[in-house]
Design goal:
Elements lengths: L1 H20 L5 H36 L2 H12 L1
Length: about 80
């Protein structure tokens, strides 16, 4: 239990030290970071969508012709 408390104390100490030493971000830097973050989120969502489409295409390719026709019939109903 003492080791856990010491580890927590050291982590809080370093976090507080770095927060007091690091300079505050300007408004432009904050906006740039936010736009970069938003762009990364959008890119990640696009990648996930692409992977989902690829998985579906792979599953469709593995189906037999009979399974495909049955699935197509269900969609058309």
């Amino acid at each position: 239990m003492i080791k856990l408390q010491m580890t927590a104390f050291i982590a809080v100490f370093f976090m507080a030290t770095f927060l007091t030493v690091s300079p505050a971000l300007t408004l432009q830097e904050q906006e740039q970071m936010q736009s970069d973050y938003t762009a990364r989120l959008k890119q990640e969502k696009e990648l996930q969508a692409d992977l989902k489409v690829k998985r579906m295409a792979d599953a469709y390719a593995r189906m037999s012709d009979e399974e495909r026709l049955h699935g197509d019939e269900e969609v058309l109903r």
